[in-house]
Write a structure and sequence with these properties.
Radius of gyration: 27 Å
Order of helices and strands: HHEEEHEEEHHEEHEEEHEEHEHEH
Pfam family, one: RepSA
Low-confidence stretches: none
Oligomer: single chain
Number of domains: 3
Distance between the termini: 42 Å
InterPro entries: RepSA
Number of helices: 10
Strand content: 15-25%
Shape: globular
Helix content: 25-40%
Protein name: Replication initiation protein
Length: 483
Amino acid sequence: MRHHLDLHHVLSPGLRDLIALANTDNFGRVTEQVRELRGCTNPVNLHGWTVTTDQATKEVVRSYRSEDEPTGRLLTTCGNRRSSRCPACSRVYAADTYHLIKAGLSGGKNVAESVRDHPRAFVTLTAPSFGPVHNRKTDPAGKPRPCACGTHHTEDAPELGTPLHPSTYDYTGAVLWNAHAGQLWARFTIYLRRALAAHLGMTQEALRTGLRISFAKVAEYQKRGLVHFHAVIRFDGPSGHTSTPPPWATFDALNVAVGLAVRRTRLTVESDAIGERIMTWGERFKVDPITALGDGELTDAKVAGYVAKYATKNAEGAGTVDRTLLCRPCKGRGYVRGPDGFLDLCSDCDGTGQAERIKALPVQHHARQMIRTAWDLGHLPEFAHLKLWKWAHMLGFRGHFSSKSRAYSTTLGALRDVRRAWRLATARAHRGLPDEEPTTLVTDSAWTFLGTGYRPGEELLAAHVRHDQALKQRAKTEGDPWL
């Protein structure tokens, strides 16, 4: 018989809630749910059911209802790729990205191992200059040189990447370049094929018949707030990774074609307010060969690790914030439609349209000015399609941080499916259940989104899970013999 708990004397809300959870019918299931989230910081709360039926025998193989949980809901991981939002889920995303990139370089995951013998390059494309900035220069021998301001900046100097002359820096051009960087990359992939065909003295149709170009890329923010792209580019035969590229498809040809494509790729942006702008790549770009083995070289594993690292980053490296500044009630407009049908000033943002005032953000002047420029450009009708209000905190960049061509390797979805199937098979084996026959099973389900986050008591349990994970990671890194 359950007795009513009087917990008013417990001052901590988290501890009070944890005691309440401990007195539910199945506290073990509460802790199990939290452990299965592996430290996720903002889990998704769901209510619903799922039923798996064997169509051959009409037997219900598995059924589940969230109402049967001690808290009446199901918790699932948020799946956020950004390490600033959820370190636990971002580690899973980084691991998946690593295997995706690695498979496209050395095979595996349904990719032929012969791809390691195909011409492959690690290409870095940068943004042009919109004004001189503080930097750390080196001479050809690698010896440090003073910045244009006359100072030898340290690696963590806060002024790195900020303009030498803020009053003349082209903030409009910088924000618009970020906003069109994704389109510029798309055009680069087209011009790369054209440049390669021109360099080899063949038609584009002949090139498509004998060669397929596959790629995977990731975006990274520079200190100055502009994105640049790191890309893996691979030559395949006409049938993709299973076929050998023709003899004329060499790394040297790829190197030349990248240089030609960088110089020829252009994008024109027109506006009555700012005139005509020509978007191009920066003069500095790199094309490095990827080797299967080697010490100090760009090996398959090193490139995959590099791409995976930046796939979980956001714009934090540029000194900005990791959250949208758009006021949700008015969607950035500054007004809402009242009951009488008239437009009323939004009380949440006082008509600014900003969830947080730009002038009050805890950022440096350079990042603040780029955010303000993106916000102001978003009010121009000709740039409405860029949704710069929404992406002001990203300094105008609105593209995918990581992407790949269809034939490069496996997909993130396929990797998640494999992991889900493995967990299901492990759970069935642990419970002594027979293997499922996937050809005869049909699953029906219905789910409702309730919200995100933990209860206060669950948050204490999740903090303990994260602590255990941190200890295990430190033991793995340092080689603790006791763990």
